[in-house]
Each structure stands twice: as structure tokens, then as C-alpha cells.
Design goal:
With 387 residues, this protein is an alpha/beta fold. It is built from 18 helices and eight strands. The chain is globular.
């Protein structure tokens, strides 16, 4: 037994239990029903397929770690526990796991705790699980298995040991954070944030052409560059579907941004783009050049001196104004900006521009706590861009 600060004990001698038969899953369910809280994580094959699927569920209670193989056993009986208000489910970065489990099994989630969200609300310097485990428990996580193909069978022993660590320490970590959130008066804010995570719904693999806003570097592009990036982003998704590959394995985000900056207009110029695979060049060079040309045309300046800004330009201006306000709020609170409001909310606000509190109430990506806390400030920013 290892003794940690504040009285936590974690039994390092115990190993995981692989759950790949209905009988074993039934026994695990009995154990989970008796536990007031348990830790949850998932592994998927998103690095290897366009249409990803959950390939492993990790569940931990004090003294036991369970690795459930959903490719070998029907995991739908777990749904009753995920939907139970009497059982708290502890995740790290819950959003992705919840969306995947809802998408694949239709599960409902209530009463969750997200240790990553808690870390960010507390303003911790690091909030990745590996860094937290190192800082809080002195545990080193081998990152060499981060890109493991979880859809392959059989799963290696090293991979299973690696997966086990994703939930093994979450319960004592949650207890540490609960105390700190209470001490700093942030527990109510955290509970609202957790509830937002549990209510997120997966999209049926539909493509959002505005998702390009989430690409690192988009905000440093000029309006024409952003229009080009959008066209390239749409083309990449089309190619990824055709090839049944994750989009980043077709063309990386860095290469998309580089294309939006350099704007090649010929095959010769395209050939010299570093990081663009030869297979992609041979397969779709003409499509890439056409997408770049469409982006150029989308925001071609008018020769008229009284040209009015396009709707995209106005949306960009609103978005930048909202980001500036959010940055000030985050600096005052000493937290990351998206703890105030995430980018997806700013994008929707910039698109729809609610300039009254009544209109703001129709923005479903904001919950009541966020509207009460930030609503007047958001409306004031958008009012400056109305008309």
C-alpha cells in the first residue's frame, strides 16, 4: 500500500480484471451497483478509421480496475449505472467519452465529475492526466502507447496496463479536487460545468463546415486565408470519407493552414508544399487547387469604395470582439479562456448575434449559469456590432 498526502491509500499490488464474457460483466455490475462512485474512461480507434467506435471501457472502484471489451461482450447493461443519480461517474475529459458512449450505445449520463474540468477551473498549471498523476501521485505514465490501435485484437498486456492507469487514480484525485473546489468557493461552478458535459449530444457523423474555426492558427490568417482554409477543410473531409481514414491522416491541420497562407496556384507550386503526401498530391492536386481558388473568390475585395463588409467578415469581427472580452475575463480569474466560454459558443454567438438577453436565452450551447454570469457582458459586446 502506498500512503499519499491527506490519507489516501492506493493498492498498487492489485492488477486489472479483463471483462470479456457476459458472466464476468454480470459480476462487475454487482460490484459497481454497491459503489457510490466509480471512475470511467474509454479507448476508441479514432486514429485508424473515419467512423470510429469504442473499443475498450475502463472502470475503477476502490481496490479494483475493470477493463471491459465491448468488441467481445454486450456492454448495454452498464447504461443503468450511467443514468443513475445515485452513482457518481468520475471522468478525466468527460466530453469525448460521453459523446462516444452516447453515439455507440445510446447511454444517458447524470451525476458526473470531470477531473480535467475541475483542474482547469482551479487554474492548475497542468490539466493533462499524465502531468496530474506525476504531480499529485508521483506516477509516471508511458506515453508510447498513446497512438495504440485499440481496434486490434488481441490487446497487448502493455496496452491493458496503460489503459488501466486512466481510471486507477481518478477517485482519489476527485477527492482532492472536491476539497480544493469547496475551499475556493468554486464547487457550484464546477457542478454546472460537469452537467454541461453530461448533456452534450453526438452528431450523427455529419460534417460541420464551420469546424475549421477550431484549427490552431486560423485566427492568425487574414480573411482570404480563412476562406481558403474553410474550402480545404471541406475537401479534406470528403477525401477522408472516401478513404475511410481520420481526416488528419489525409492532410494535417498544419498543412491546411500552410496552404491557406501560401495559396499555391499550380501543380508545380503544390508539389513543393512540405508535409503534403505524394499519394494525396497524385490523387487530388486538381481538387486542392480548385478549393484554394474558391476560397480566393469568396472574399475578393470589391473595387467599389463603398463596399459593405460581407457577412463572413462581420461574423469574424464579432468573434474577435468576443475573444477580446473573454481574454480579459480569463486574465482576471487566472484561468484559461475557454473556461469562461468555449470557442464553439463564441462561434455561435458571433453567427447569430443575440443583442438582447431574451435572444441570448435561445442560444442552447449556453446554460443558465453562464447566461446569468456572462450574459449582460456578451450582449453588450454584440450590441456594438449590431446594425
Amino acid at each position: 500500500m502506498i500512503q499519499f498526502a491527506m490519507g489516501y491509500r492506493i493498492n498498487e499490488a492489485e492488477t486489472y480484471i479483463l471483462v470479456d464474457t457476459p458472466a464476468t460483466l454480470k459480476q462487475v455490475l454487482e460490484q459497481l451497483r454497491d459503489a457510490p462512485l466509480f471512475a470511467v474512461d474509454t479507448e476508441s480507434d479514432s486514429l485508424y478509421a473515419y467512423f470510429e467506435k469504442v473499443c475498450l471501457l475502463q472502470l475503477s472502484i476502490p481496490g479494483a480496475d475493470y477493463l471491459v471489451d465491448p468488441l467481445r461482450v454486450d456492454v448495454t447493461p452498464l447504461g443503468e449505472l450511467f443514468a443513475s443519480q445515485d452513482h457518481e461517474k468520475v471522468f478525466h475529459a468527460a466530453s469525448y467519452d460521453i459523446l462516444c458512449l452516447k453515439r455507440d450505445y445510446g447511454f444517458t449520463f447524470v451525476n458526473i465529475f470531470d477531473t480535467m474540468v475541475a483542474a482547469r477551473i482551479l487554474g492548475w498549471r497542468h490539466y493533462g492526466l499524465a502531468a496530474i498523476l506525476q504531480e499529485q501521485f508521483g506516477v509516471h505514465v508511458d506515453k508510447r502507447l498513446q497512438r495504440y490501435n485499440w481496434g486490434a485484437r488481441p490487446l497487448s498486456t502493455a496496452a491493458l496496463e496503460y489503459a488501466r492507469l486512466d481510471t486507477h487514480y481518478l477517485l482519489p484525485l476527485r477527492d482532492l479536487q472536491i476539497q480544493e473546489l469547496q475551499r475556493r468557493g468554486k464547487l457550484i461552478e464546477a457542478r454546472h460545468a460537469f452537467a454541461r458535459e453530461s448533456l452534450k449530444e453526438p452528431a450523427t457523423k455529419s460534417f460541420d463546415p464551420e469546424g475549421f474555426w477550431r484549427i490552431s492558427g486560423v485566427l492568425q490568417l487574414d480573411p482570404v486565408g480563412r476562406a481558403i482554409l474553410r474550402e480545404l477543410y471541406i475537401l479534406r473531409d470528403k477525401l477522408a470519407r472516401e478513404m475511410d481514414l481520420p481526416p488528419f491522416k489525409v492532410i494535417s491541420n498544419d498543412v491546411l493552414v500552410h496552404l491557406a497562407v501560401t495559396r499555391p496556384s499550380s501543380r508545380r507550386e503544390l508539389l513543393h508544399i512540405k508535409g503534403l503526401g505524394q499519394g494525396i498530391y497524385r490523387r487530388c492536386s486538381d481538387e486542392l487547387l480548385e478549393a484554394i481558388a474558391r476560397g480566393r473568390r469568396a472574399l475578393t475585395p470589391s473595387p467599389l469604395r463603398d463596399r459593405r463588409p460581407s457577412s463572413l467578415e462581420i461574423t469574424i469581427a464579432r468573434y474577435e470582439a468576443l475573444r477580446a472580452w473573454r481574454r480579459q475575463e480569463a486574465e482576471a480569474r487566472q484561468v484559461d479562456p475557454d473556461i469562461i466560454l468555449p470557442n464553439r459558443v463564441l462561434i455561435e454567438l458571433a453567427r447569430r448575434s443575440p443583442i438582447t438577453l431574451e435572444a441570448l436565452a435561445q442560444i442552447e450551447t449556453m446554460d443558465e449559469w453562464q447566461r446569468q454570469t456572462y450574459g449582460e457582458a456578451v450582449v453588450a459586446v454584440l450590441q456594438r456590432w449590431s446594425g
